[in-house]
Amino acid sequence: MPLDTSTTYPLTKLRLDGRRWNELRLLQAQISTNPASSGSSYLSMGNTAIMCSVHGPAEGRRGDASGAGGSAGAIVDVEVNVAGFAGVDRKRRAGGSDKQSSRIATTLRSAFQSHLHTYLYPHSTISIHVSVLSADGSLLAAAINACTLALVDAGIPMPGLLCGCTAGMSGSASTPRDPRHDELDPLLDLSLPEEQELPVLTVGTTTSVPVGENNMDDEEGDMKVAVLTMDSKLHYTYIETMLAVGMDGCNQIRELLEGVIKGSSRA
Amino acid sequence: MMADRRRINGPPGGTRPAVFASNSQSGTGATTRAQRQRQPSELRKIFLKTGLIPTASGSSYLEFEPSASLAAARANPKSLIPPSSALKLACTVHGPKPLPRSAAFSPNLVLTTHVKYAPFAARRRKGHIRDSSERDLGVHLETALRGAIIAERWPKSGLDITITILEAEDDRWWGDAPDSHDASWGMMNVLAGCITAASAAIADAHIDCLDLVAGGVAALVSDESAGSSAAPKLMLDTDPAEHRSILSACVVGYMPARDEITELWLKGDSSKASLEDGDKRTGHEALIDGAVDAARGAHTVLAEAVRESLLSAVGQL
Amino acid sequence: MSNQRQASSASQVPHLSPAELSYLYTSLSLPKSSIRPDGRSPTQFRPLTAETNILPGTNGSARVGFADGTQAIVGVKAEVEKTVLSNETVDARSEFGISEDRGEQEGSAAVGGHGSWVQMSIEIPGFRDDDALPVFLSEMMRESLVGAVGSAEASDMTGGLKGRLVINKRWHWRLYIDVLLLSQPLSYPLPLLSLTTHLALLSTKLPKLKSQGEEDPFFDDDWAVAEYLYPRVSLSSAKHSARSPFVRPPVTLLVISVGENIIFDPNREEIAVADAVLAISITRDSEAGNLKLLSIRTVDPPSRLTQPGIPNSENVNMLGAVASTEDVAVLNPATGEEEVPGVWRPRRGGVKRSVIAEMVKTVLKKGGVGEEVLEGLEGVEVS
């Protein structure tokens, strides 16, 4: 019997790594891991491990600042490097970055460029360096979380924590959803084998009010989606479920990250 | 990076052609391994001439005399495969010229070295893009030359040194199994040639130097006729094709006037050297001294070539 | 930018003024007792933190961090690969009945391994893969790794690392060593990278082989029985050489000379005033227990690219303000050049042979720096 989610999940209601549909993988994080940078973080979600370091805000390189965007506020510069040993097979890298890492870099750049209060730092550059040490699914989501932690560590003002999470469906979901007879479950925080096989979307959300000032009543109302990417094919009737699950995962992750930040400030 | 779509690339895996080395070995004994016929401290002859490329501000051409066995084999060919190769390289120097506007300010002359094998230089074809060994050679060469050039006399200027290797030294005898050893001993001879040729070209370009840097190679070779038990011997200017087993080798860039080494690259096991009785030197010291002696030999040729080019320049005036 | 990259074989030149450089040089070159900016003794290394086996997805991994925040992570991955040997040659020769002697030589690649089976790539932020610095560093470290051939005593490591990678005549391991520097190098990154690689290789495990002889290899699924790439000798056999319990990968040390002093593990400021920079690779000879030299390479000292200072006698602004007697050039015994004391001159020329010999001796001698470093590394728990 092939070991994949779409055949085993309906029988056991357990995913390949033994999680239920709404469970996150073990999330461990640490900030201020690298004293040489302005801010740094280490984050692992299951077997996905990412180190992130932030330099700046600092004066940009010559030539960069000549652009019109440079004068108004800080430019966020993201570099993503997937280590050769990150995957199962050692990947041959030819001449720097590949498609996947440059896509993640572009998404991160646009997300944080609009998320951070860049207007406070005109004529400067905030450079973020993301190293993927071990890749096991949800790379973009983990990178968003790691960047958020590193930026908090660097003390760069932002309205709320930007947290990312993935959500998928437990089958190919190509036919319209039948609300009375739901066969497919949405899945939270996908690992690499699930990600390769099932439809998946990555969602990143943020709150507009700083941490701690949240009123419990309208917490839901404050939620903003900052990142949303999906490249798999899926019937549109499922999107809403997946999005809801993903955003719920973001909330869980936000609580975990807040714990990390508060825990380290006490120490 | 994506695959190069502008060229038609071969299949990625590729196959290896059969090497019928043994055919030529049957009976005649024509292709026995070349034997070194020089004394241990005798160098090969070097041909060095400067100023061959009129468009460059300085240039030189260097050629090592082929080993005696090669000359014999060429005169009386028994196999289509040349038994050994000898170094041939050309060096051009462009500059000093102003640095590009975008470059950062430099109070000194900025040296850029490019070492490139011609595709046909070695027995195995080299690609057009520089590989890591060529870049490595470039760094070695840069280190060797930067120590000699008086760089602060040209602030904000750049100097490009380009070396094209037309024929490279073999790393091993061609009759040995292709994979019998992979240490690139031939690369060290190439580096020594590069250093000598480049300093001739720099002198030809009238760049101020402390001294002419000459390159020299020495190696510890275990003598095969005496069996493996015999202690390795020190030889100067080794041709890797002539020896079965080179234990360690050393290349230096050396300035005789100051008795200083600008570049040193030593590798291999030098601990078992057999030196004469009463010689207190350790293996690596003897190896470095040997390489320096080889470099002194190359320096005489270098000085003569530079003097020749100077005299011809004076004659033209 | 590209020009700077090309030239920066010895890391970036820090922006120190000629006066600072001169001050550093003077304090470092004090006869017999150099004063280092961070108060270390000439042979003392910077404190570091190290951990191994941090990445479960690799065969072996290590992280080393210096106190100044520079960190390196090394991951080692091994893959099984078919040995591409010119089998045709072998067959043809045996048909023609070539002497045994030659036949032995044929198989030597299958027995002795091949250096290209060890691949090394170094990732340094701000540099491209094919820039001079990463290429030079990886060639330097790979050369000593591949070159270290063990003695006959150590059963599994007879052919050194590359011999260990041979599975049988047709199959072998290919080892990928990926070095990741997590921040822009603050000093010449060689010591950091070398130590991290050393630890990562020590913690590297290969799955236990279940097939025998010339069969196509298959391996035990149980990771718990996997064998170390650098095998540990059992306690009983280690007794006779208690000092070196098992074969260890080589280490590369960075040594500089300033004046007549020899200084180890230089930081960025120290290397900026060095007269000569040498990278020396050593390993422990498992037979005799003493140290063995594997390779030496000169590294281009950044001091050659620094800005010179101007003595008062040549400074127009100071004209007449200073008595000319203050600016007498003195012969510097280390460089053999006339220098005005306290005025920085970029280094020129090379290094004397005696200095090289002294550097190597300091590393190799009994109780020397090499032993100290290896003993320090042996203290790191490798799980």
TrEMBL record, chain A:
CDD domains: RNase_PH_RRP41. It comes from the Eukaryota. Residues 23-157 form the Exoribonuclease phosphorolytic domain. GO terms for molecular function: RNA binding. GO terms for cellular component: cytoplasmic exosome (RNase complex); nuclear exosome (RNase complex); nucleolus. One of its GO terms (biological process) is rRNA catabolic process. Belongs to the RNase PH family. This is Exoribonuclease phosphorolytic domain-containing protein. It comes from Penicillium canariense.
TrEMBL record, chain B:
Its main location: cytoplasm. GO terms for cellular component: cytoplasmic exosome (RNase complex); nuclear exosome (RNase complex); nucleolus. It comes from Penicillium canariense. Belongs to the RNase PH family. It comes from the Eukaryota. Residues 21-38 have a biased composition (Polar residues). Keywords: Cytoplasm, Exosome, Nucleus, RNA-binding, rRNA processing. It is found in: Cytoplasm; Nucleus. This is Exosome complex component MTR3. Residues 42-207 form the Exoribonuclease phosphorolytic domain. The keyword Nucleus applies. SUPFAM superfamilies: Ribosomal protein S5 domain 2-like. GO terms for biological process: nuclear mRNA surveillance; poly(A)-dependent snoRNA 3'-end processing; rRNA catabolic process; rRNA processing; U4 snRNA 3'-end processing.
TrEMBL record, chain C:
It is found in: Cytoplasm; Nucleus, Nucleolus. Residues 32-61 are annotated as: Disordered. GO terms for biological process: exonucleolytic trimming to generate mature 3'-end of 5.8S rRNA from tricistronic rRNA transcript (SSU-rRNA, 5.8S rRNA, LSU-rRNA); nuclear mRNA surveillance; nuclear polyadenylation-dependent rRNA catabolic process; rRNA catabolic process; TRAMP-dependent tRNA surveillance pathway; U1 snRNA 3'-end processing; U4 snRNA 3'-end processing; U5 snRNA 3'-end processing. Residues 41-61 have a biased composition (Polar residues). InterPro entries: Exosome_comp_Rrp42_subfam (IPR050590), PNPase/RNase_PH_dom_sf (IPR027408), Ribosomal_Su5_D2-typ_SF (IPR020568). Keywords: Cytoplasm, Exosome. Its main location: cytoplasm. Signal peptide: none annotated. GO terms for molecular function: mRNA 3'-UTR AU-rich region binding. GO terms for cellular component: cytoplasmic exosome (RNase complex); nuclear exosome (RNase complex); nucleolus. Belongs to the RNase PH family. This is Ribosomal RNA-processing protein 42.
